[in-house]
Amino acid sequence: MSEKYDTMMTPQVEGLMDATGSKFGLCTLASTRAREINSYFGQLGDGLGNKIPPQVTSVARKPLSIAFEEIAAEKIVPIRPDPEAAVEADGDDAA
After folding, report:
1. What is the domain extent for residue 34?
2. Please, which residues have CB within 8 angstroms of residue 77's CB and are 6 or more apart in sequence?
């Protein structure tokens, strides 16, 4: 599955997928972080904000490219929910 192809994208998609585990996980994580980065740049002139700035130094201008670079640098990692905790929480609601 992790065959190497010549692409113009840096970092390589294969390496990003290794960090997230799946294409869906990569898309979800990168798009969520890109929206956060976009919100951060949108509120810069408003004074102190509550958004987290980009975690890597990048020459990229697009939030999605910056998000991919953060994932490749392991500054942003996916958080996977614990399925056992979800079952226990559902069991508490039924009682």
Report:
1. 13-94
2. 19, 71
Report the CATH number that the domain containing residue 63 is assigned in CATH: 3.90.940
Q: Is residue 8 in some structural domain? A: no
Amino acid type, 82: D
Residuewise pLDDT in 10s, the chain (95 residues): 555 555 566 777 888 888 888 889 899 999 999 999 998 888 877 766 678 888 898 888 899 999 999 999 999 888 877 778 767 776 655 54
Is 75 inside a domain boundary? yes
Asked whether the beta carbons of 30 and 40 are under 8 A apart, the reply is no
Distance of CA 59 to CAs 22, 32, 51, 76, 93, Å? Answer: 27, 20, 20, 18, 49
Number of domains in the chain: 1
Considering the domain boundaries, does residue 27 fall inside one? yes
